[in-house]
Amino acid sequence: MNKAKLRVVLKYEFRRGTSASLTVKEVNHVFGEETADKMTVGRWFGRFRSEDFSLEDRPHGRPKLKVDNEVLKTLVESDPSQTTVQLSRHFGVSPRTITEHLHDLGKVRKLEKWVPHSLGALQKEFRFMAFLCHLIRNKKESISDRIITCDEKWILYNNRKRKRQWLDEGEELQEIPKPELHQKKVMVAVWWSSRGLVHYDSLPPGKTINAGYYCLELETVMKKLAVQQPKLINRLPAWVAPEYPDRFLGGRTHLFLRINLVWRTLEGYRASRSCTIL
Question: Is the pTM of this model over 0.70?
Answer without folding.
Answer: no
